[in-house]
Each structure stands twice: as C-alpha cells, then as structure tokens.
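# step 3/5: fold
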Amino acid sequence: MKENNEFEKHNLAIDRNMEVDCDTSRQITCYIETWFDVDKKFGIHINDEENTWLNMYGKYNPYENSLRIEREISRNNGSEYFDYQPTDSEAQLIKEMIADKIREEYHQTPQKFCEESYGTDDIRDEHTAQSGQIFSVGSQENPLKQDEERTFTMGGM
C-alpha cells in the first residue's frame, strides 16, 4: 500500500474467471485477490475472527469506463456486502489490471470480451450447462490459437 493507504499493483490480483452481465452485456464482474491488510485498509477488524474473510469483486463497465468495487465479509453464519469507492488512481489501476487480464487470457479488449461473452454465465465451462448449446470464444478478427480454443455451454435458453 502507498503511504496514503491506496492500492498498488502488487496488493491485488485479478482472477482469470470473469462473468459478463447477462442482462446488458456491458459489465464484467471479476474476483479481486487481496494481498494487503484488509483490516488496515477498510477498518473492518476481521483478521482475528476465525472462519472470517473478505472477498472483493470488481464490476467494470468498459463502455462507460466505470468501476464499482463490492466487498463481502464472509462468516460461517452468513455474509455482509459493502461497496468501496476507490480513489481515482485505484480505479484506474484496477481497470487496467482487468483489461490486462482479459488480453492475457482471451486476447481481446474488454469490449470485445463483453460482446463475445454476452448470454453466457461461464466463459470457461466450469458450471453445469442446461441448454446444450455450444459456443466458441474467439472470432475471425481475433481467433484463438488451436491450444487456446475454448467452448462453453449457454445455460437457461
């Protein structure tokens, strides 16, 4: 963390599994790994609680260049949800990290990722599909290499 308590790149990691909002196809949700003292940053005092942890999610709209951070404090008896308003520099850092992860994993821009993922709930086919329809990730403009080809099943159609 910086002296002013702002995130730095080494404090965060973007998980490769992401979802695109199924209603609008304009928002990417991803898990943000927290590699910092969450008690100090957020003033929540959970480090000493057994079976308690913080999950943090980024909700990034690349069309509006907006970012919302949702925090979840998970305990054995339930969860609490809170939004966090990042500083401008934190928001810029996280948006860049999400875009970098999409380029690294999918060889796409965040906008293209939204367009190609629209209507799916699982880009990596890790959930059980319901409809049996198969779609490929990639396009003629941005094809994936043979060993990177991925298919996923669209559920709920």
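# step 4/5: annotate
Residues 88-106 form the longest helix (19 residues).
# step 5/5: archive (pending)
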